[in-house]
Amino acid sequence: MSAHGDPVPMTARKGAALRGVADVPGDKSISHRSLILGAMAVGETVITGLLEGQDVLDTAKAMRAFGAEVSRDADGTWHVHGVGVGGFAEPEDVIDCGNSGTGVRLIMGTMATTPMSATFTGDASLRSRPMARVTDPLALFGARAVGRKGGRLPMTITGAANPVPVRYKTPVPSAQVKSAVLLAGLNAPGQTVVIEAEATRDHTERMLAGFGAEITTEITQEGRVITLTGQPELKPQTIVVPRDPSSAAFPVCAALIVEGSDVLVPNIGLNPTRAGLFETLREMGADLTYENLREEGGEPVADLRARYSPDMEGIEVPPERAASMIDEYPILSVVAANARGATVMRGVKELRVKESDRIDAMAVGLRAAGIEVEEGPDWWIVHGKGPGGMEGGVTVATHLDHRIAMSFLCAGMAARQPVTVDDAGPIATSFPVFEPLMRALGAQLDRVNRAG
Ligand SMILES: O=C(O)C1=C[C@@H](OP(=O)(O)O)[C@@H](O)[C@H](O)C1
Ligand SMILES: C=C(OP(=O)(O)O)C(=O)O
């Protein structure tokens, strides 16, 4: 089933080269945070370039339910009238975060230090994902959580009436956990400290500083020590959301594996906590160049140019790079299948608790398409067959996972036989224009007539 309706089976087949300019939408992580911090500020935050994917629309709806005013102009500019730190009102109904782990975990953090209750749910994928990683540290602030067995949604959080600041070392490399703790710390008096052994995406830290919070990051032997001073008055901002490197990954990788391709993907943020895939592809021998490299809003930005790369070879991806490309392993495995030799991916157990178990979902589909894959709890190896070496001729299950759907559709663009995904519907959660954008580059994507 797609997140919001009947399944949308879709087939990708080998066609001509992919060529042209791919304007990918706004960054999903930064879009969620713009709405949430806008709702915590006093006054009007104006956002352009917001990703209008279902995950982010569900966060916008949630911010309204907590009392913020959120509106959209006809030209796509968004306005958020915030209620101030600690100003959330108790929602009258269940908060449905759809397919979005980021949405639900960040919002739980944001309300956990305000004395009120809220009940959260989501689609079948989100209801199967672990929430204790967030509710454990929120309990240290004084919040209580009651959910299903194993800490699953639906779950009710009762925020702390007298929150205390927290010092917390994250046990998993997760920007969502780090962000939930920092957002809870906003309404706790004194200093909340989060320590992460491995650097994860730092958008929350950067944006909190932009909204005027006192926040510092120190690199120590323990890792990154992030200290936030609670109960600031956040000042509304004008935010231009950069384009999403995780979405850019799809046209970039498709161009690398489809013969004769040459695609330009402009204005992609290369924040080092997000750009691990592009580094990995270049190490594999991809013809991927950064054009017009510049700084925008304090972040490196470039136009990515990807050309067909028949000489790519498998590599061992450094495990310490995993957090900076965590959402990109599914599409990397498709590139790996079209490279020569083994691509070894270790230190990636987080892939098993995303929208689906992504190692399992990719391994099953790749094997069916003729590619050998080995796997363990926190590693997998894809044995590439070189350019055009994937047989295809399969229908794969996407398990309500947008990245699995997009990855297999890109695989089908280079395989000998077509590849069908059982449901392309979830793609709308993060990349609603994927289908027209890829078609405009020349991709052969067809919706399958289920009656026929
Ligand atoms: O903070 C964020 O915006 C995200 C963090 C990552 O999840 P984890 O924190 O679970 O690693 C990533 O997979 C997700 O797509 C977005
Ligand atoms: C893991 C992802 O998102 P989330 O955790 O927000 O559902 C993703 O977009 O790949």
What would you say this structure looks like, in words?
By secondary structure, the chain is α/β, with parallel strands linked by helices. The chain has 2 domains: 10-26 and 242-447, Enolpyruvate transferase domain (UDP-n-acetylglucosamine1-carboxyvinyl-transferase, Chain, Alpha-beta prism), CATH 3.65.10.10; 28-236, Enolpyruvate transferase domain (UDP-n-acetylglucosamine1-carboxyvinyl-transferase, Chain), CATH 3.65.10. The protein has helices at residues 28-40, 54-65, 101-111, 124-127, 132-141, 175-185, 203-210, 245-257, 276-283, 329-337, 358-368, 402-412, 434-441, and strands at 10-13, 19-21, 42-48, 69-72, 78-83, 95-96, 117-121, 144-148, 152-158, 167-169, 191-196, 215-220, 223-229, 238-240, 262-269, 287-296, 299-307, 316-317, 340-346, 372-376, 379-385, 394-396, 419-421, 444-447. A 4-stranded mixed sheet has the order 22-23-1-24, with helices on one face. Helix 1 packs parallel to helix 2 and helix 2 (54-65) runs parallel beside helix 3 (101-111). The mean pLDDT is 97. The protein binds shikimate-3-phosphate and phosphoenolpyruvate (PEP). It is found in: Cytoplasm. Belongs to the EPSP synthase family. Keywords: Amino-acid biosynthesis, Aromatic amino acid biosynthesis, Cytoplasm, Transferase.
Task: Give a quick precis of the structure.
With about 450 residues, this protein is an alpha/beta fold. The protein has helices at about 30-40, 55-65, 100-110, 125, 130-140, 175-185, 205-210, 245-255, 275-285, 330-335, 360-370, 400-410, 435-440, and strands spanning about 10-15, 20, 40-50, 70, 80-85, 95, 115-120, 145-150, 150-160, 165-170, 190-195, 215-220, 225-230, 240, 260-270, 285-295, 300-305, 315, 340-345, 370-375, 380-385, 395, 420, 445.
